[in-house]
Specification:
Number of strands: 21
Distance between the termini: 6 Å
Largest sheet: 8 strands, mixed
Bound molecules: pyridoxal-5'-phosphate
Shape: elongated
Number of helices: 11
Strand content: 15-25%
Radius of gyration: 24 Å
Amino acid sequence: MAGTIVRPPSEKRAAKALEDDRIPASATGVIAVDLDALASNWRALAKLVSPAECAAVVKANAYGLGAARVIPALRRAGCRTFFIATADEGAAARALAPDATIYALDGMTPGSADAFLNFKIIPVLGSIAELREAVASLSGQSAFPVALHVDSGLNRLGLSLADVQDVNAVPSRLKGLDIKLVLSHLACADDPTHPKNEAQRKVFDQMRALLPAARASIAASDGLMLGRAYHYGLVRPGYALYGGQAFQGGRTPVEPVVSVHARILHVRDVAAGGTVGYGATWSAARASRIAIIAAGYADGIPRAATAQLPRNVYVNGAAAPVVGRVSMDLIAIDVTGVTPVPQRGDLVELVGKHNPIETLGVQSGTIGYEILTSLSPRFHRTYIENAAHHG
Ligand SMILES: *Cc1c(COP(=O)(O)O)cnc(C)c1O
């Protein structure tokens, strides 16, 4: 044996995950998370932005994919800096990554400074009130590691230009604070032609010049695709690590991480004129074969559909349109003419090779981010890791 490691392509790994006999017969749906693809995505982005550091945003339970598996996998890939939203998420992340640098993007809610100090979570502070609380929470000798969030035009969180000027004029506002990072967030980074990107970057530089020198960060998944000028010392992608392709100016060098399949519970014939589902909103134009699958809005498949676009589910690679309303636990799909004839118990693809997360997002009138973070806690999760064989 030559001893080279051959990694099957991600599609093959995903297919194998579904054959896996560890999937319980009673599971109505399967979410397969390819941790090998996740690790390789992080490495690809780290390479793209080097010498800037590539952190990982793992808020909202790693975008719904399971922080308990995602954080250790990213650590093994080499990631040393993580961003979560809240102190509670930070405490969970700390247990998984004892030596990592962890930032909390939501900053501190009133009176919560101890939660950050206790777990060594660095709050991202974005208002004078938060700075005041952080300074007041210090017991004299120790320093409080913090990040400063400056608002360069999103008007969400972050110090305004006037706040930054105030901090510049009154240095005691930062007394005892150890500023690890100054960050800002872009409003339109998915669109490389948008003038707001460069405008925000200029405001960011202007604000940084008024603050003590520190590492800087403005780019998330899309911002890092805008070029070197946006990388600064650190980039903080989330969505792209999970295979997301939100950037409109080209392909982000990442591969899919997630697939979602649900089981067919029942296949029935509906006569021409028969209706399907609540509100009788769909009626069969011809004798139809309808498969009922075990996924609904409680599983994160949005009930809202856009009238213009059919939403498809894939049955052995064949597109089957969703018909009628999505209900809490069930969806009906039209499988008339699909061969081989789908059977009760078969797994059909909601997200995967044929249906990228973006497509389901667009067809549901939303974005891939919302699809990801809403995926069912009810579905069986299977993680693909070290799917390498020696050849
Ligand atoms: C969520 C978030 C990110 C990550 O954004 P992605 O688009 O998922 O890469 C980065 N920075 C801030 C401030 C965020 O809120």
